[in-house]
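Worked example

This section walks through a single chain of length 298. The input is the sequence exactly as stored; nothing has been trimmed or padded.
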Amino acid sequence: MPSLHRKIGLGTAQFGMAYGVTNRSGQVNRHELDEIMAMAARYGIDVFDTAPAYDQSEKVLGHYTSTREGLRIVTKTPHFKAPETTDSDVELLQSTFAQSLKSLQVDSVHALLLHGGANLLRPNSGIIWAALEALKSEMKVGRIGVSVYTPDELKGILDLFPVDIVQVPANILDQRFSKSGLLKQLREAGVEIHVRSAFLQGVLLSEPHTLGEFFDPLKPHLLSLRQTAADAGMSMLQMALNYVLHMDETGTALVGVDSAAQFQEILDSVDDDFQVDTDWQRWAVNDTCWINPGEWKL
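Given that input, the structure is written out below as tokens.
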């Protein structure tokens, strides 16, 4: 069994809602969930990423916390939308996290992330960080940190707060964080790094012609990338997954699945000896309108 299996973590948005631009099957049903969780246990996968924003995800995951010890659950705060941090934000964080623990049926979690890292760049954001530190000192949280969208956002946060876990997007097209040098800096400092969006919400795994008109300008690039994978004797799933797993900075690579069969396909694609004769930088896309799903006009 490849050793890299343990670097995989499960994103659980699909556990509680229909998630992802290429999702055609909706929320994962209970039978599939039972199989997925059993497979995760067999392969030693223990990181589960969730959030209150993922509808029923925390409650669904909570059904399994009593049957498997040692799960490293990462959950998140709400998004705070006001221009300045207030005491009501702190109260919302505390009450939401208390509900998260109840839904997950646990006394503590491995990590708690600011779901919108930019919230720490608002005026008076120190009171939010102090609330996170208080939960950590009470041993309700092991690590505290941020989920971010851009390197500039992460750099601004690192200048202000001593995070000990970060979640960033990264894939063959989105190489911004690796190029910035920030991930290398964090790894050397002992910060836990979780990478999400390995498949760019399924765009990298889709036949380009099946994508909507919005992606038309990107399709020739995707077709060429698929040909590179084929020339290397592998699927796009194999190439996209192993690219992220083999990034030096990746501590955990988060994947979302719609079914047990899909999860098995991912697990079967892990390759400790992954090598592709290509210059990875040629595949980087710098225009965020293609690599940030928040900017997609679908």
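What to look for: Residues 19-25 have pLDDT under 50 and may be disordered.
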